[in-house]
Amino acid sequence: QVQLVESGGGYVQAGGSLRLSCAASGSIRRIDHMGWYRQAPGKQRELVAVISSGGSTNYADSVKGRFTISGDYAKNTVYLLMNSLRPEDTAVYYCNAFIVSGTVGVYWGQGTQVTVSS
C-alpha cells in the first residue's frame, strides 16, 4: 500500500512564500513522476507543476516564474516552493504521484490548504 503525506500549507499574505512537501511511503518499486495539483472552491482541480524522476519539469502558466518544484527521489519526496503568492493561489493543494509498486498506479495525498490574503 502506498501513501502520500503532504505538509507545509497555511495562511500567508499576498507576496509571501510557502513551501509544500510531500513524502511517499509504502511498497514502492519506482516513482515515475510526482507533482502538485490544486482545487479552488467551485473550480476543477488543475495541474500546478510536475517533475519526472529524470528532473524534467512542467508548470502551469499561472505559476511560471513564481513556483519551483523539486524532487528527491532517493527519499520519495517532492517539494513546491511558492513565492510571490497571490490571492488567486488560494486552494487545496494535492500531491500526486505515478508509482510502480506491485502494480502501476496514480496516487493522491489528502490535500493541504493554502490561503493567501490580499
List the helices and strands and how they pair.
Blueprint lengths: L1 E6 L2 E4 L4 E9 L3 E10 L6 E7 L4 E3 L7 E6 L4 E6 L8 E10 L3 E5 L3 E6 L1
Parallel strand pairs: 2-11
Antiparallel strand pairs: 1-3, 3-8, 4-5, 4-9, 5-6, 7-8, 9-10, 9-11
Class by helix and strand content? Answer: mainly beta
Radius of gyration using CA atoms only:
14 Å
Mean pLDDT over all positions: 96
Percentage of residues in DSSP E strands = over 45%
Distance between the termini: 41 Å
Give a count of the beta strands, DSSP E runs of length 2 or more.
11
- Distinct helical segment count: 0
**How would you spell out the order of helices and strands?**
EEEEEEEEEEE
The largest β sheet comes out as: 7 strands, mixed
Task: Note the overall shape.
Answer: globular
Work out the helicity level.
under 10%
Unreliable stretches: none
Question: Would you kindly provide a written description of the structure presented here, covering whatever features stand out?
Answer:
This protein is 0% helix and 61% strand. With 118 residues, the protein is an all-beta fold. Strands 2, 4, 5, 6, 9, 10 and 11 form a 7-stranded mixed sheet that branches. A 4-stranded antiparallel sheet has the order 1-3-8-7, with no helix packed on it. Strand 4 (30-39) and strand 5 form a beta hairpin. The protein starts with a strand and ends with a strand. The mean pLDDT is 96.
